[in-house]
Amino acid sequence: MIFIHCPHCGDRNEDEFTYGGDVEHRRPDKPDAMSDAQWCEYIYCVPNTKGWAKEHWWHVRGCNRWILVERNSINNELRKPDEDSGSE
Amino acid sequence: MSKQAFRANSGGRIDRDRPLTFTFNGKRLGGYTGDTLSSALIANGISIVGRSFKYHRPRGIMSAGAEETNAFVQLLGSNEEPNVLATTLPLYEGLEAHSVNAWPSVHFDLGGMNNFLHRLFPAGFYYKTFMWPRDRWDWYSRFIRRVAGWGAVPKKSARNRYEHRFHHCDVMVIGAGPAGLSAALAAGRSGARVLLVDNQPEAGGYLLGDSAEINSRPALSWISEVVAEIDALPDVVRLKETSAIGYYDQNFITALERRPDKSWVKERLWKIRARQVILATGAIERPITFADNDRPGVMLASSASHYCLRYGARPGRDAVLFTNNNGSYQHAIDLKDNGVNIVAVIDLRSEPDASLIAAATAKGIDVLLASQISKVIGVRRVSAVEICASNGAGDCRRIACDLLLMSGGWNPTIHLHSQSGARPAYDADLVTFIPGMSVQNEVSAGACRGQFALSTCLSDGLTAGYNAAKACGFDTEPKSGPICAAEPNISPMPMWEVPLPKKSSRAFLDFNNDVTSKDIRLAEREGYRSIELVKRYTTAGMGIDQGKTGNVNIIGLMAQITSTTPGAIGTTTYRPAYSPVSFGAMAGADSSDLIIPWRRTPITDWFIDNGGHLDETGALFRRPLFIAKSGETANDAINREALAVRNGVGIYDGTPLGKISIKGADAVTFLDRVYTNSWGKLPIGRCKFGYMLHEDGRLLDDGVTFRLSEDHYLMSTGSGVASVVQKHLERLLHCDWPDLDVYLTPVSDQWAVICVCGPLARDVMQAAATSIDVSSDAFKFLDTKNCQIANINARVSRVTYTGELSFEIVVATRHGRELWDALLAAGKDFDITPVGSDTSMLLRTEKAFIAAGLEGDGYANIYDVGMGWVVPKKKGDFVGKRSTTRDLNKGGPRPEVIGLLPEDGSFVPPKGTPLIDAERNMIGMVTIGFHSPNLKRSIALAQLSDGRSRLGETVTLFTKEKTALAKVCEPVFIDPDGLKMRD
Fold this sequence. Notes:
A: mainly beta, 1 helix, B: six-stranded mixed sheet, 25 helices
């Protein structure tokens, strides 16, 4: 059970959170302008980064906010995300 | 009851004034308070405690701790439990146990014939022996199932209580031996919050059964002083009989506490988050691999002396020690001092530490150097050993003995260190694996990092404790450790297999799973080089004991066979749990009624009292499927309720509906983006249906959203998907559209929802003293208004799930039952009929209102379910739109929802029935079928390939019993123009 730092509540156990996916996997601004192939790529080829990645986590059993977490998928190491990356 | 023939008259930590009686394999025996089951068995001279897994060889107790590989028992009585370690089970009055793997008894086991057929059971015999003929596996497996496995699942469910507990601390110390106690003391003195766990009933570790001295006094007096000081520290928690069993990310550690003090809990699983962890888990002595090393009476040297010193239980009368290291001489001397005759010490080495030979000789112990044991005589108990020179010179000789002690060196208990993600390293001097680089905030101290001398254990523990406290911000002056006598290095000689005397001899590596050195050699010959594959092929290290004693010997033997080093072979992966964990402990309090905490609506009690047939219907609600009158069958009740709604009036508890309050200046923009339809023109006081899609175009939910004020909307969702929709919307808002001024609040539990539906619904509303005009002109379909009903503040809306004239009434949850009772009273003259959710499902099927989880499965898009009309022609982007247009771009037939009228009106096609064409290809599937009492015939909805273009055609339904024909029709069976609901 990983130990996630919530900027609003402090360090909390993983079971208070719900995983929300890779931050890089943003919803495209203009889906209509994309080809079918590009759209499929977005929908079905979800990033699964080996190593450090920024992720959304939802503190659903806590403050109910979505937070940014940086996690190393190799060893589950966590670190605070960069301030300029839109972290709340 | 026989007397304890192998019990010393004095000495040890047992209380001879408090005798206990217990039963093992049907025999009543005596022991003392302070005994474990295994020490009591030894004191009674019980040499056979079980039979081995594969060959059913008689086995005795081999060790005195968690590493035990033979002495697993079935605990009987009200606490029945399989595979309990006799070595860690404290004896109690009336304990009842028997051996797990023997039939009919441990002394005469029919499975013992396997021992003579052992050539049939080589490594990987499962894969070899039962491969032909292929179709006989079922027959073989029946036989194998009967003889394989340990213990028996208790017939009755456990009546014991279990619980989970969370704990946070600065420093966690695992193990309360000399290193762990020192560490806990050092860290505790600094003021840090310390948690000290140990798997024994009392602190002290190996010193509880050892003759060592600290500060020139018995070690146990030092221990009692330290324990007293630790227990007096306010921020130190010390747990007894608690095994740390798992080490996970960010210093998250699970520990199993057995028999907590003064508690009704049998076992407690601790979930611990520690800033710093000190592992002081000690070391486990290693067996030596020689022919018949598994005979009852062969025991680890340290364990034998532990039994003698701690429990006054002598594992034998005349013992031979077989060793490869300096560490075991003291054990032989201690045994000799406590009444066990040491006939000889057989040392594999030619030059052990001279002081040890002198000490042994001074005690009258014969030491034979450069010698080895080639043979063990005796099947049910060692009776003699045959000793030969290691170089094969000279004659071998036989020595009579009833106890054979073995000491093949020591393995640091690196399990938790390895579980933390670190890689162990091989130490050639110690001939074993020691902890490698830490990857978490963790440090090993004492014997578990290969520091075996008592003085180093103590100083190592102190240093680790100070450092850990300092890392947490607690700084104190280090004190120097206590003083102990010097000890020689253990200097073990690598010896992975003593040459076997005969081709048929077997030397055991994994006693628990009956894996011999020959199995390892066979695996290597057959090409298995990776130690992970050798493990799986031979099952070595996969037993209940997880190879605590055997694994390093297996790695060493593999290295020897392949002419490399054990370091190059490496270890297998250490995984939780370190010791066996009961299912009860894992479940904690989540058993029986607490597995699922059912949610209730204000009306649930009424249904329970009035014949409601409650069942799970999603989101942890138990709702009535129907409300049966006495003597009614399920079908009777559903038909009666359905007729009442179409012809009279029904009342339905819709409270489980999900409700999300949506507020903010951008609420309309948000709704436009998450629903397929447009929301800009919805006036205040009106509502409409919306279809919500996943981004991949599949139906997520449908429901009604109300506009309550300028920028306040209330969305209702299906009860089962309320939390899914909430997450979906929250994610979009927070992650994708943070610029939108919209706030969501889940309010499902705040409001009770009651629907009055049917042609007479309006009459009931008037009779219930509704404060507004509910006539069709004043209160139109899809209107929503605040009012009072029976003097309760309410919001009423004209929405429907049945296709009838309906009023959906929303009141604060605390008024739900009051409203329900008022409506029942008001509807009495109209024969108002409470309706269950099965009936509701039938009514929606008659109207073909789409259910997202049935007609809209993981493949259907909004056009497939016939709801394409809700997507405005020129609507901008919304979630799921692009995936839907991709479906349209692809072309080709789609599975479209249609209605079915079976030609035989009494045949109700079950959900999932395939539709087939003339070539018997599947072209569709029934999503739901019912007998409609209103139409007096069966109806169904189905997905059918290109269904919309097949209206009027006949298709074939294919069930197990028969095929049936059905006519494809428009998916609506009653009131196709919706006149009734708009009335």
